[in-house]
Automatic annotation (TrEMBL):
The keyword Chaperone does not apply. Residues 77-91 have a biased composition (Basic and acidic residues). This is WRKY domain-containing protein. One of its GO terms (cellular component) is nucleus. One of its GO terms (molecular function) is sequence-specific DNA binding. It is found in: Nucleus. It comes from the Eukaryota. Its main location: nucleus. The lineage of its organism: Eukaryota, Viridiplantae, Streptophyta, Embryophyta, Tracheophyta. The keyword Cell wall biogenesis/degradation does not apply. PROSITE patterns: WRKY. Keywords: DNA-binding, Nucleus, Transcription, Transcription regulation.
DNA sequence: CTAATTTGACCTGG
DNA sequence: CCAGGTCAAATTAG
């Protein structure tokens, strides 16, 4: 544990340092945005790594997430999670419900996903460097745009449980709110020998003909010169009246320092408990608390 | 051809 | 019952 703790500290320090760099860059009159994005990516990587350390109490890393500008926020689900357990998709024959005509076409039969972490991101871009596969779309009542549902492409290859929901929430600058649910477990821990796995050596994963799977830590994030400087919402203590802001979100005006043409923005919904206010310690606790990593996932033979 | 998306049916929790 | 989430057949894209 000491190792993880240390590593966590290192990551966070690194992140803070980089944030400071970014800050000074932003104060320069001609800070170029390439550098800014680079720094930003660095910061986000430290977040990702930190989360990785926290969630996977082991020590593996390689969360190649967050490709282009977005800052995410982890929000421990409402603390009281009931639902006895999370057997996805009730089994076939056995415990099926009295619906006799059940298996004519049994779509659905899902239980609310329970203990997966979720975090929301608001951004003008939906790319996040992950391979997602859309599996549904729904019209949400109070929303003006439909909500799209995605799952990780490797769900069946590797049993990755990550999903996300994307919903456009605004038009002029196309703005989407993405809710990530569960972390990617794919592309790592393939043959995980029960022994220690050094944090750094991932056995090159035998480049199968995957098509361009980037090596860990995405080489080039900003593939298409996409500018995106996120604006992180800061749960201020007295933000009592967000009268003219959509929802109850508060946007921190980071972008005022930049002259990016693209009005990118990020914020985290303030619906429930947001962790911004928490101390790292508490946050760590809640995340650990929430860490459930496991292998339930009954393989469904078709 | 395979892989991804579309789209309505189907389930479940509240 | 309803709204939201998921499945899978049909369709389209690569």
């Amino acid at each position: 544990m000491g190792t993880n703790h240390k590593r966590l500290i290192e990551e966070l320090l690194e992140g803070r340092k980089t944030a400071v760099e970014l800050q000074s860059l932003l104060h320069k009159p001609f800070g170029d945005r390439e550098s800014a994005e680079e720094l930003l990516m660095k910061i986000m990587t430290t977040f990702t790594e930190s989360l990785s350390v926290l969630t996977a109490s082991n020590g593996h890393e390689d969360h190649q997430s967050a490709a282009s500008g977005e800052v995410y926020q982890v929000k421990p689900e409402p603390s009281h999670v009931e639902h006895s357990h999370c057997g996805d998709r009730s089994s076939e024959g056995s415990g099926e419900s009295p619906k006799t005509q059940a298996f004519k076409d049994r779509r659905g039969s899902y239980k609310r996903r329970k203990t997966s972490q979720s975090w929301k991101v608001i951004s003008t871009k939906i790319e996040d460097g992950q391979a997602w596969r859309k599996y549904g779309q729904k019209i949400i009542l109070k929303a003006s745009y439909p909500r799209a549902y995605f799952r990780c492409t490797r769900k069946y290859d590797q049993g990755c449980k990550a999903t996300k929901q994307v919903q456009q929430i605004q038009d002029n600058p196309r703005t989407y709110q993405t809710t990530y649910i569960g972390e990617h477990t794919c592309r790592t821990m393939i043959k995980a020998s029960p022994m220690i796995i050094g944090p750094d050596l991932w056995p090159s994963q035998t480049v199968s003909s995957e098509s361009g799977s980037p090596h860990r830590q995405n080489p080039n994030f900003f593939g298409s010169s996409s500018s995106s400087i996120p604006i992180v919402k800061q749960e201020d203590s007295k933000v009592g009246t967000p009268s003219d802001v959509t929802d109850n979100n508060v946007w921190l005006g980071l972008k005022d320092h930049l002259d990016f043409s693209e009005p990118t923005g990020i914020c985290v919904s303030s619906n429930e408990n947001v962790v911004s206010n928490m101390q790292w310690d508490d946050m760590v606790k809640s995340i650990n608390f929430e860490c459930d990593i496991n292998f339930d996932e009954g393989f469904d033979a078709v």
